[in-house]
Design goal:
two-stranded antiparallel sheet, mainly alpha, 3-stranded antiparallel β-sheet, 4% strand, binds 2-acetamido-2-deoxy-beta-D-glucopyranose
Length: 508
């Protein structure tokens, strides 16, 4: 593990601040002239989901260093669990982050489908969503059974292998009536409900099927309450549900309302707003675990639209919390309720995979900016803020990601002249199976490929890595997984933001 950066330096010694101010002013002058190819970045971001595919790859697979893998997933349990996504640089299929990824891809298409289409990427975005939802359909084998995970993190992490060579356990784990998982069921319901909106026009039969699964999953999650990591202990060291399941139930309920217009779901979100923490929690992170900010932002939109006057007193309180989140990202709350920014201006939540919080914040700020613009409203932070400022800030985060930062590096792999070349990713770091089919074993991979200093042989284009530390410093080493590992849910929210920024540039 790497030495911890001294994050306290952000707020303390003056010496440090002066040094950074000097660097920073040089950097701002040089950065202001940069322009970015958002359309190119959007195309690349969608390629990433092809690199993460598990299962039998289709004829039109564009990431050609990958091949079929995980073809017997579920076989031991007598269920077909072939397909879906690997979450990051390993080969476990974790249900909760996979579902969140699909929710965010779908939300991107719901808000910015037109802009994605203008960039010529709608077909790829729909394929990325469907690769996930096809898997969820398989994994939801009966109304109250959902397969939660395939593979197990502990044996997987002993091995450094290509997915095509995988010899590790493919144990599958499920939630059911006796082993509940309301968070997983709620998020998967959210993903399928959001995707059902996406496919409503182009594929109504599929859309209807997704909605049916979403409704059953929501009912299952609500009726049999519990945290999925109590039922599937194996996830505890990887994707423990720290925030519990109440956020996912509200979130799933709200997405079902968006998909169905059925008042039943809206009333659920209103009636449980207080007891489930929806209007009590002002949180400054939005992630695969913590959904409150996203939920509050959609509820705030309902408030702005003014269509649900009978629920205004609750929607208003959702909106207050949504705005707390937004203002916090802008550092415009009164007092200390603000997130940190690095000296280079990047949102900084925590050291391990900080970029996930950056891309999700950029997305939420972008959609909130549009909600405000469309309803001709402003935001009250500690002072009034217009919609332009939200978009400008979101853009600054994306520009930082794409290279406008003290390291002059794009954290979106494959974009621009300089990007991480030793991404912590098993498949990318080993010679492609299509080039060399000779079996590479578990420890052989560590000895011959993981420990090499050379760049990875395969570029995992479109992956958004964990990113720099609190002082904008980044070290491109394969073993530095806190910074060089990428995850599907880092890139997913970027899809919508990049489409919006590209379109905005076209408009000017
Ligand atoms: C902001 O915080 C300061 C210090 O805590 C307080 O005196 C002031 O009243 C607050 N302003 C608002 C608008 O809440
Ligand atoms: C980044 O680019 C600027 C301007 O070209 C340069 O002054 C600076 O030294 C570069 N920083 C790094 C870490 O390469
Ligand atoms: C940045 O990281 C490099 C490589 O790990 C290290 O040598 C350097 O001291 C770090 N710089 C700061 C300011 O932390």
């Amino acid at each position: 593990m790497k030495k911890q950066p001294r994050c306290a330096a952000l707020t303390s010694p003056l010496r440090f601040v002066q040094q950074w101010c000097l660097l920073l002013s040089i950097f701002i002058i040089s950065a202001s002239a940069r322009t970015f190819d958002y359309a190119g970045a959007l195309s690349k971001s969608l390629l990433y989901f092809e690199a993460q595919r598990s299962g039998r790859l289709p004829y039109n697979q564009r990431v050609t260093w990958r091949d079929n893998s995980g073809l017997t997933d579920g076989l031991e349990q007598g269920v077909d669990l072939v397909g879906g996504y690997y979450d990051a640089g390993d080969h476990v299929k974790f249900g909760l982050p996979m579902a969140f990824t699909v929710t965010m891809l779908s939300w991107s298409v719901i808000e910015y489908g037109e802009q994605i289409a203008i960039a010529g990427e709608l077909e790829h975005a729909l394929e990325a969503i469907k690769w996930g939802t096809d898997y969820f359909i398989k994994a939801h084998t009966s109304p109250n059974v959902l397969w939660a995970e395939v593979g197990d993190g502990d044996t997987d992490h002993y091995c450094w292998q290509r997915p095509e060579d995988m010899t590790t356990s493919r144990q599958a784990y499920k939630i059911d009536e006796n082993n509940p998982g309301s968070d997983l069921a709620g998020e998967t319901a959210a993903a399928m409900a959001a995707a059902s909106i996406v496919f409503k026009k182009t594929n109504p039969h599929y859309s209807h099927l997704l909605l049916h699964h979403a409704q059953q999953l929501f009912e299952f999650g609500d009726k049999y309450r519990g945290k999925y990591d109590s039922s599937v202990e194996e996830v505890k060291s990887y994707y423990a549900s720290v925030s519990g399941y109440m956020d996912e139930l509200l979130w799933g309920g709200l997405w079902l309302y968006m998909a169905t217009d059925n008042e039943f779901y809206l009333k659920y979100v209103i009636n449980k707003a207080h007891s489930f923490g929806g209007i009590g929690w002002a949180i400054t992170e939005f992630s695969w675990d913590v959904k409150y900010a996203g939920l509050q932002i959609i509820a705030a939109k309902l408030h702005m639209e003014g269509k649900h006057k009978e629920h205004n007193h609750i929607l208003e309180r959702y909106r207050e919390k949504a705005e707390h989140y937004i203002c916090s990202c802008l550092k415009k709350n009164n007092g200390s309720n603000n997130v940190d920014h690095t000296p280079g201006g990047l949102i900084y939540i925590r050291q391990w995979n900080n970029m996930q919080y950056v891309s999700s914040a950029a997305f939420l700020l972008t959609v909130y900016s549009d909600f405000l613009r469309k309803s001709d409203q402003k935001l009250s932070c500690h002072g009034v803020v217009g919609h332009e400022e939200l978009l400008t800030f979101a853009k600054s985060q994306v520009n930082y990601i794409l290279g406008s930062n003290p390291m002059n590096m794009s954290y979106l792999v494959g974009y621009g002249p300089s990007y991480p070349t030793r991404v912590h990713h098993r498949g990318a770091s080993i010679v492609s199976y299509r080039e060399n089919k000779g079996f590479i074993g578990c420890t052989q991979g560590y000895d011959n490929w993981y420990s090499r200093v050379e760049p990875n042989p395969n570029v995992v284009v479109g992956a958004l890595v964990g990113g720099p530390d609190c002082l904008d410093n980044f070290s491109d080493e394969r073993g530095n997984y806190m910074q060089t590992e990428a995850c599907t849910y880092n890139t997913a929210p970027l899809v919508g933001v990049l489409a919006k920024l590209n379109h905005q540039k076209v408009e000017v």
